[in-house]
Amino acid sequence: MSKFLYKLGKSAYSRPWLFIGGWVVVLAIVIAMLSVNGVSVSSEMKLEGTESQKVLDQLAEVQPEASGGQGSVVFVAPEGESLNTPERLAAIKEAVDEVYGLDQVLNAPELAAQAMAQAQAQAQAAQGAAGGEAGAGDAAAGAAGQGAGAGQSGEADAQQGAGMAQQEGAGAAQQGADAGADAAARQGAAGSADQPPYTQLIVDGAPVIGVTIANDGRAALFQFQFTVQQSAVSDEIKASVVDTVESAASETGLEALPSESLLPLDIPIGSNEVYGLVVAAIVLIMTLGSVIAAGLPLVVALFGVGIGVGGAYAFSTYLNMSSITPVLALMVGLAVGIDYALFIINRQRRLIFDQGLGAKEAASRSIGTAGSAVFFAGLTVIIALCGLLVIGIGFLSTMALVASATVLLNVLIALTLLPALLGLIGERICSRKAREKNAAVQASRAQKQAKARWIHGVIKFRWPVILLIVVILGIAAVPAAQMNLAIPSAASADLDTAKRQSYDAISESFGEGFNGTLLIVAESANGENITPQTLGALTQGMQLLDNVSVVSPLGISENGKLAMFSVIPKTGPNDEATSKLVTTLRDENLAIATATGVTLGVTGVTAVNIDMSAKLAEVFPIYVGIIVVLSLIILLLVFRSIVVPIKATVGFLLSILATFGITTAVFQWGWAHDLFAFDTAGPILSFMPIMVTGILYGLAMDYQVFLVSSMRESYVHGHRGTESVIHGYGQASRVVVAAAVIMVAVFAGFIFTHDIMIKQIGFALAIGILIDAFVIRMTLVPAVMSLFGDKAWALPKWLDRILPNLDVEGDKLLEELKAQEAAEGARGR
């Protein structure tokens, strides 16, 4: 590997414009594809195989309209005023009617009217008498009234009226009317017992379907349904809905607050990331002592993420990609791109300073030696990320593949574009002034070697250091035991955002559960049609369950096999009690389900998020197991040692647990929330632990490879015992510290974005790198290595024969170069 990379580096250095031109062409192709295809990302995160997704898929097949996305708008009157005035109520009704007329919005009033007409016609045909006509009309009206009273879409009301009217004869029609009346009465009775703070909005003596008004008269909630999945709703339609309701509200002095599902998708990339790059630039200048040298890692990293993230956006029209996917690629790409280039440039400069090599030879050797470490470090990150594919979760797999592709691009660019750029710079990579300054520093460094207090102190007090680190990180990990995994909702958004204000207004006037409506689908277990009696019995039975606020029957499917209900919990979407309610409704032995001969399925945004969190929590230990096994195998191959892989893996587990503990304390418990610019504590993003574990593992192994390979190189070149640890640490610590500071700065730049999901991931990665680089790699690793001394590199002979020699340190390359130099010297004599 090192020989091949040496030749590649020399070729790129000698013919810079060929390699630079090649990468420019690739970037141009990505830009062209991006301009043609555009950007298409979604906030939807589909999780195949879960109960909620199965129900959605079933609805999409049997009753496509019922599987569409949902939206809501809350109209709020100014403090001390009421919206119960003729002008304001008329404006709300006009806005609601206009929204129902938009494309991709289910026209509930029209469907309700159609259902009523159909019910009347069928009842007349069945009975041929006035009594039958009245019964059918009452059935349809009862269905429409129930749907409107619950504030849900009229599409379901229409299904119920039609379904009931499809029963045979006048007796069935009358049963439908009785069931509708009984269900409404039961809902009203339950409501009066709980004293609900809302009623159905009535304008000009007729109910406004989908609109509920608070009893205090200050807020009205409009809930409706789209005809397509949430991810398929166009931005133009969302904007039309928002413009319509805001226009009507502003004319009457009201405030219209749209739900999060109606707001345009905001790609969470902003100016905050620039601050991390500024810090990175400062650290690079301080480390390399040259503006020219410091600029190269930034150029390389930006080239890598430009192609990687730009390519992800260019292909987003062909992939189901969440908005967070390219952001993760940007995070990881910037960090590894800067670090990998820094390692290579630092090695080149050290070869120039310490061995007096020319810039070309030094660049070629740095690609062959440090480049080998970069290759295996990048490979480690890619393997860790691709381990997510084993879990089989679609959106996580897409995230992993996009991030892995970006890391791979950064590795290839560091090994090809970077030496080409170095070829353009030539000997200017180290100015004469820098060479003279380095010579003076080197002259005094030998005298000051004994004053390397940190590494000598760590080795001298290694047992107290090891115990102290274990205790401190153990304490930091304690909050992780109480980590609550969920998809952060508008409840934890900043107070000045529209989605948070909408959430709070709904919670205050109607109850927090109205922010997390559950869609229940009852399927006939014996294949028979669901009757109106069954519909009424299920409504009554579910209304009596704990933590249920309102149950509204939404109707029966056209084939008569499915019945749909809206269930509004008393608690919010991320509340533990809501999760328990979902579990209860899915219980096969639930009394109301067995008594009516149906099986109940639960779906909706809230149920999907609950299932996602449960699934990710279930597979997380499996993924950690995969990471541990990979860690042991990769490090065994790289370092040809038993002790080093075990020590590195245990250290990583300590750092990751402490990271999760601190992240839980900050974001879930709310510690220091003002410092990190968010208003409200909330749950931890459900896929954050599994994603952060993969990324942190790969990056932690980067530092492990660069630091410990330097110690091994010292050992191979004759240093023994603690001397090899001290010498190797001295050779690599400065650049590893710089790389860690840069990576922390890059990730920290994402902490101050407005998106709580990106904020949590950025914080976890920043604090994780901080702990792993400075506490584990720079402190615990040398302490443990000094305990074992030369035994740290022991390997059983049988295993030594089996394992391939990867030559990460480039020993074979150096031997070959020395042989060539010796041969050339002999010919010269």
Short structural summary:
The protein is an alpha+beta fold and 829 residues long. Among the domains are: 2-37 and 267-482 and 610-821, Multidrug efflux transporter AcrB transmembrane fold (Up-down Bundle), CATH 1.20.1640.10; 68-105 and 195-265, Ribosomal protein S10 (Alpha-Beta Plaits). The chain is 66% helix and 8% strand.
Would you kindly provide a written description of the structure presented here, covering whatever features stand out?
With 829 residues, this protein is α+β, with helices and mostly antiparallel strands. Among the domains are: 464 residues, Up-down Bundle (Multidrug efflux transporter AcrB transmembrane fold); 109 residues, Alpha-Beta Plaits (2-Layer Sandwich), CATH 3.30.70.600. 66% of the residues lie in helices and 8% in strands. The strands form 3 sheets. The protein has a 5-stranded antiparallel beta sheet, with helices on both faces. A 4-stranded antiparallel beta sheet has the order 8-9-7-10. Helix 2 packs parallel to helix 11, helix 12 runs antiparallel to helix 13 and helix 13 runs antiparallel to helix 14. The chain is elongated and about 115 Å long.
